[in-house]
Amino acid sequence: MHLKPIQSKFTIVLCNFRVKDLEIMLGDERDKAQSLANLNAELNIKLENFPLTQQSGIVLNFEYDGVQQSKEELNEKNHEIVNLNLQINDLKWSLGEHKQWFKDANDRANHFENTCKEKDYIIDDLTNRLHEAERRVVEISTPQSTEFDKIDKIKRKYFRNLNSLIDDLRNEINKKNSYIDELEKAKNEAQWHLGEHQHWLQDANNK
User: Which Gene3D superfamilies does the protein's record reference (predicted)?
Assistant: First the structure.
């Protein structure tokens, strides 16, 4: 019922891999953009040094068209780089939020789990003491009526207090278990959102 740190760590590692994939894509796009920028600069130099004669008009137009095409491709690559940067920043922010949430949730769940174990130990100990007291009462030979009434009254009071304490401890454990259930539900919702992020990144990667 408690949170599973292994599953949480696996989800975080998976998101880290997706961030690295996007960073690799971003590096490739930057290289392409740099190549286009270099080509654009080279074509601009050719245009500046090319003699503006009627004979070279056709070649000049061809070179100019090449420059325009390179500029358009360069702008397109720059736009893709901006989008990839935004995707990486959004994913890193979301990943950081989920890492912190998982850490807090796991810490709380572990604390409540340890508390419940302590309460279970106390209940077991009190139950054993109750059984031992009942066994001893049975073994005691029947005393005089007055003494028997006193012993019976003490015994009933002791058992009432012991049972009341056990009930209180069980109620406290039930409350802790309910809170752990809520943490488990919130964790599952967070994992679902992470799955949505991964699907969105896969779509972006396919583009």
Answer: 1.10.287.1490
The mean predicted confidence, pLDDT, of the chain is 69
Helix (H, G, I), strand (E, B) or coil at 3: coil
C-alpha–C-alpha distance, residues 136 and 109, integer Å: 40
Q: Whole-model pTM?
A: 0.37
Look up residue 62 and give its two tokens: 């061809």
Residues in the chain: 207
**Crossing angle, helix 145-206 and helix 57-139, to 10 degrees?**
170
Contact, 70 vs 60, CB < 8 A? no
CATH 1.20.1270 at 5-206, yes or no: yes
Q: Which tens digit of pLDDT belongs to each residue from 72-114?
A: 776 777 777 777 677 767 767 776 776 777 677 777 777 777 8
